[in-house]
Amino acid sequence: YFVCSEWSHLDNRKLGRVVKNDKEVVAALQQMQSGSYKGGRRMVFVDMDYNVLSFQDQLKTDCMTDVMIGPHGAGLTHQMFMPDRSILIELFVDNSGANKHFHNMARWRGRGGSQYRPVSTQNPVNVDKVKEIVRDAVESIAIDKY
What we know:
146 residues; 3 strands; single chain
């Protein structure tokens, strides 16, 4: 471990891509926990800020995540540590849809077909559209697969 002034900016990094109506989206996804889903599946929603977690806790969270949704950005790299059955939903809220970083990463990780779901959207996002996409993801997870 070393302290280096070259890295001091990392603890106060400004987020570049944010969902403008994040609170509304989070509230809607939290409400979905009480819904009923195909095959008796259930949904547990966690609004996670990886910036406040140790790396070990980040990885623990990844290993328990079946559906990850977020705006295009470095945080989606965590998909690499999610179970094989997991689904990544990438929101392109800033016209970043031409960037294929996480699409390629998903393919390299073995997430083919509908396990990677790119969504180009206005910002603020359409909450009903997000709910529909998440519901479909929850209902299509291959729960017999790790």
